[in-house]
């Protein structure tokens, strides 16, 4: 137990802050980097790479986003929308342990389901649990602290190799803690003996003989060490990790697996390696190797986040032509027709904000779609399998007219010109409009 106890002493559970990374073979395809707190998607940026999707709910602008959710509990995905609409996220990776929460119309929070328990947190919980076993001693120490001056409390702490805190309340708390440990030595010794019977594989005969030579705070530290192992074991068990407690080195296995899980969740190993963190990184990598292959694979899957971010422009249900599947058709290469001229008007205030046109036979290599110089409208040609779709949308809230013509690049002698006048119609109006 001596070597194990040394590993689980305060230095281990406060200094071994390790993180990130599977073995080289299993992590080649993933960049294990700590993501930013906020991921922004500017749908109005010309540099944004997105895919147009023609869904049942309407046109959707899809952007694939991927990251590893390590080093932080949550990430905010925030969209900048060039026009009104709905921003949604769909989780597309399998086995990812996250929850999605819509914060507002432009932002969604991605939160990990994993509880990150650090070595320092384990040590603090173990210390508190050990102190809870000394209620009478704590009560006596509080009584003493209330009657002593600050200088007396500080003198006691220095005598027991503790540096007094600056704050008066902290000095009093430190005295109560240290004094209760001193008063409760016999109880701590009994607790250690009982724990050794319960977990004999964690405390050898030589370990127990060594405890007889310890007193006061050293004995309390040995008790806290064992409680730290128990807390780490409970954490691993709750999260589906298996450990054979009957094995003589099961305590070391618990320590290694705990450090491995923390290494993957915390992301600290994704930071720049330095001389100061070399030992921590080595301990974390050793812990990752202690995980069974299926355990590492499951945890890895749970940390890799792949989402499809979608901006679906706003659709007015009263506007019959606001959906791509209600678009009006134009045959670009009809026989005997050289030019198709189209004119129309949008009026958002009258449920007419968007017009869709399907350009049948459109080929950018030999077809021209030319707009006039009207202001107040925006247009874009979108590719959808074997057809092109022209979307015209009002840039503001005011009525705006538009006009465009479709013609071939090659001159056509004697070809006719067709003129189309678009008129608004409500969704409830019977066909033909």
Which features would summarize this protein structure in a list?
2 domains, four-stranded antiparallel β-sheet, alpha+beta, Jelly Rolls, four-stranded mixed β-sheet, disordered N terminus, 12 helices, 433 residues, 27% strand, 35% helix
Word description of this protein:
With 433 residues, the chain is of the alpha+beta class. It has two domains: 1-134 and 184-314, no CATH class; 324-421, Jelly Rolls (Sandwich). It is 35% helix and 27% strand. The chain has twelve helices and 16 strands. It has helices at 2-7, 10-15, 119-132, 135-147, 150-159, 168-183, 185-198, 205-211, 216-238, 250-266, 278-290, 293-303, and strands at 38-42, 51-55, 58-68, 74-80, 85-91, 98-104, 107-112, 304-313, 328-331, 337-346, 354-360, 367-371, 377-384, 387-394, 400-408, 416-421. A four-stranded mixed β-sheet has the order 1-4-7-6, with no helix packed on it. Strand 2 and strand 3 (58-68) form a beta hairpin. Helix 10 crosses helix 11. The chain is elongated. The termini are far apart. The model is unreliable at 1-29 (pLDDT under 50).
SSE arrangement:
Layout: H1 2-7, H2 10-15, E1 38-42, E2 51-55, E3 58-68, E4 74-80, E5 85-91, E6 98-104, E7 107-112, H3 119-132, H4 135-147, H5 150-159, H6 168-183, H7 185-198, H8 205-211, H9 216-238, H10 250-266, H11 278-290, H12 293-303, E8 304-313, E9 328-331, E10 337-346, E11 354-360, E12 367-371, E13 377-384, E14 387-394, E15 400-408, E16 416-421
Parallel strand pairs: 1-4, 9-11, 10-16
Antiparallel strand pairs: 2-3, 3-8, 4-7, 5-8, 6-7, 10-15, 11-14, 12-15, 13-14
Helix pairs in contact: 3-9, 4-6, 5-6, 7-9, 9-10, 10-11
């Amino acid at each position: 137990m001596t070597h194990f106890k040394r590993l689980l002493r305060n230095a281990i559970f406060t200094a071994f802050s390790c993180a990130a990374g599977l073995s080289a073979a299993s992590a080649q395809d993933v960049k294990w980097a700590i993501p930013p707190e906020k991921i922004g998607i500017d749908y109005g940026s010309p540099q944004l790479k997105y895919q147009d999707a023609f869904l049942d709910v309407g046109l959707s602008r899809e952007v694939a986003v991927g990251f590893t959710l390590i080093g932080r509990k949550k990430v905010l995905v925030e969209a900048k929308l060039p026009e009104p609409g709905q921003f949604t996220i769909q989780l597309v990776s399998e086995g990812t342990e996250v929850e999605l929460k819509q914060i507002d119309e432009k932002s969604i929070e991605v939160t990990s389901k994993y509880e990150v328990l650090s070595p320092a947190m384990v040590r603090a919980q173990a210390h508190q649990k050990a102190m809870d076993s000394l209620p009478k001693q704590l009560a006596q120490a509080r009584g003493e602290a209330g009657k002593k001056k600050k200088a007396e409390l500080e003198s006691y702490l220095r005598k027991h190799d503790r540096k007094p805190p600056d704050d008066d309340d902290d000095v009093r708390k430190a005295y109560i803690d240290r004094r209760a440990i001193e008063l409760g030595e016999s109880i701590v010794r009994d607790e250690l003996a009982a724990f050794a019977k319960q977990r004999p594989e964690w405390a050898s005969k030589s370990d127990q003989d060594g405890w007889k030579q310890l007193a006061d705070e050293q004995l309390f530290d040995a008790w806290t060490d064992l409680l730290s192992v128990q807390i780490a074991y409970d954490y691993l068990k709750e999260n589906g990790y298996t450990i054979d407690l009957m094995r003589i080195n099961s305590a070391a296995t618990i320590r290694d697996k705990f450090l491995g899980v923390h290494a993957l969740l915390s992301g600290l190993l994704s930071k720049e390696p330095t001389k100061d963190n070399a030992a921590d990184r080595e301990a974390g990598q050793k812990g990752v190797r202690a995980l069974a292959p299926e355990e590492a694979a499951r945890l890895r899957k749970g940390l890799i986040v792949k989402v499809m971010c979608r901006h679906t422009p706003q659709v007015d249900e009263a506007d019959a032509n606001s959906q791509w599947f209600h678009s009006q058709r134009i045959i670009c290469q009809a026989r005997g027709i050289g030019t198709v001229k189209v004119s129309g008007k949008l009026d958002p205030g009258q449920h007419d904000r968007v017009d869709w046109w399907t350009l049948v036979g459109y080929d950018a290599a030999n077809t021209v779609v030319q707009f006039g110089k009207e202001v107040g409208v925006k247009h874009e040609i979108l590719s959808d399998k074997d057809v092109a779709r022209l979307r015209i949308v009002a840039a503001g809230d005011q009525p705006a007219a538009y006009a465009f013509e479709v013609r071939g690049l090659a001159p056509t002698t004697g070809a006719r010109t067709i003129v189309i006048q678009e008129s608004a119609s409500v969704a409830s109006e019977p066909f033909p409009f």
